[in-house]
Amino acid sequence: MAAPAVEGAAVTALRAVLHRVRQAAEKSGRSADDVRVVAVSKTKPISLINQVYDAGHRRFGENYVQEIIEKAPQLPEDIEWHFVGHLQSNKVKSLLAAVPSLAMVEGVDNEKLANHLDRAVSTIGRKPLSVLVQVNTSGEESKSGVDPSRCVELVQHVKLGCPNLQFSGLMTIGMPDYSSIPENFRTLSNCRTEVCKALGMEENQCELSMGMSGDFEQAIEMGSTNVRIGSTIFGPRDYAKKK
Prior knowledge:
Layout: H1 2-27, E1 36-40, H2 46-54, E2 59-62, H3 65-71, E3 80-84, H4 92-98, E4 102-108, H5 111-124, E5 129-134, H6 151-161, E6 165-171, H7 183-199, E7 207-209, H8 216-221, E8 226-229, H9 231-234
Parallel strand pairs: 1-2, 1-8, 2-3, 3-4, 4-5, 5-6, 6-7
Helix pairs in contact: 1-2, 4-5, 6-7
C-alpha cells in the first residue's frame, strides 16, 4: 500500500515544481515555456518514472550510463532523455546505441569527449546530438567541467569541429551545499556572453542550464533556460541501488 502513495507524491511534487518554475520565470519577465524542466530520475524505479510520465512530463535525466541503458528500453519511446554530468569517453558508443531517443548530453567538458560523441553519432547514423558544454564555475578540483577561461575554446571546437553535434549552450553543477551561488550563475552567464561574442551568436541561441532542487528558482531569475530537478520531485536518492 505504500508504493502508490509515493508515486502520487511524485506527481504532486512535479506539479508544485512546475508552478514554482512559472512563478520564477514570470518574476524575471519571461514565460514558463522559456524554461525546460528535466526530471532527474537516477536511482528511481521504472514504476515511479511512469507515474510522472503519465502526468504529462516527457523530459527525464539520468547520471549513470548503466542506469539509463537499462531504463530507456522499458519506457515510452517519446521520452526526451538527457544524460547529465560527467560522461566517460569509453561509454559513449554503448550509451548512444542503447538510447536512440537521447536528446541531449549535459555536458561535454573536453575535446576528447566531443570527438568521441561526434564519431559515434556519425557511425550510428542518427540525427545530430544536442550537447551542452559543462563549465566548472565553482573552481572545485574534483568537479568536472572546463575552466571558464577555456570555455570559448571548447565551444569553438564543438561548434566548428564536430559536425554531428549541435552546440546548444552551457551548463554547470554548483557545490552540493549551494554555497557557491549566485557566483556560479553569474560566471556561467558571463561565459555565455563571451561565447556569443566570439562566435557571433545571439544569446537566445545559447542555453544556460543551471539550477537544481535547492536553487532552481534563483537560477531561473538569473537567466537559466534549463533546470534539473531530482529529489524535489522523486524524493531522496537511494544510492544503495546505484549501478
